[in-house]
Write a structure and sequence with these properties.
It holds the Pfam family FMN_red. The protein is 41% helix and 20% strand. The chain is α/β, with parallel strands linked by helices. The chain has a single domain (2-184), classed as Rossmann fold (3-Layer(aba) Sandwich), CATH 3.40.50.360.
């Protein structure tokens, strides 16, 4: 199973802190999984210009091909101006419309206040659904007060992140079995 974590911003540390915790949990509990972190702050990604993702070069090609090869994706995003960051939206724009078909996608969202908790429901989930993702219904919303010195200090948040990882893996396994059964129906 290939799991890709996307830390969807080029600024700040909270989303990366939460993603590190989630992926560390995944590595500890699922040693057989191939787990990759794509921290968008560490890549030089060009703006989408409508080309097929395989036609790009450098970091852009690496990031998009890594995402396309994944079985499961955990998207971590901060909330900027009550929305997702442009860097994350650009990733979606670089990918084909059906990029997440047969992929399980889960989310963790960081924000300064509880006022932004619906951003995932009203913006991120519709984009993922449009791109054909199997969306893990429960996402983890983390507020500013849940962090201190680049550490998660809220036990409930840590528990919810662990549950998010488990749900992501369980959904991925379940959808793989469904696909296998569906493929077995064909006699060629």
């Amino acid at each position: 199973m290939k799991i890709v974590g996307i830390s969807g911003s080029i600024v700040g540390s909270k989303t990366r802190t939460a993603m590190d915790y989630a992926l560390r949990t995944a590595r500890e509990k699922h040693e057989d999984a191939d787990i990759t972190l794509l921290d968008l702050a560490e890549y030089d990604i060009v703006f989408s210009d409508g080309r097929d993702y395989r036609e790009y070069e450098g970091d852009t090609k690496l990031v998009t091909e890594t995402i396309m090869a994944a079985d499961a994706i955990i998207i971590g995003t901060p909330t900027f101006q009550a929305s997702i960051p442009a860097t994350l939206k650009n990733i979606f724009d670089l990918l084909p419309v059906s990029a997440f078909r047969d992929k399980v996608v889960s989310m963790l969202v960081t924000a300064g206040t509880a006022k932004h908790y619906l951003m995932a429901e009203q913006q991120l989930k519709p984009i993922l659904a449009y791109m054909k993702a199997h969306i893990v219904p429960a996402y983890v919303f983390i507020e500013e007060k849940d962090f201190n010195r680049k550490e998660i200090v809220n036990d409930d948040v840590r528990f919810r992140l662990e549950r998010l990882v488990e749900d992501t893996v369980l959904y991925t396994d379940a959808f793989a079995k469904v696909r296998e059964a569906k493929d077995a129906e064909y006699d060629f």
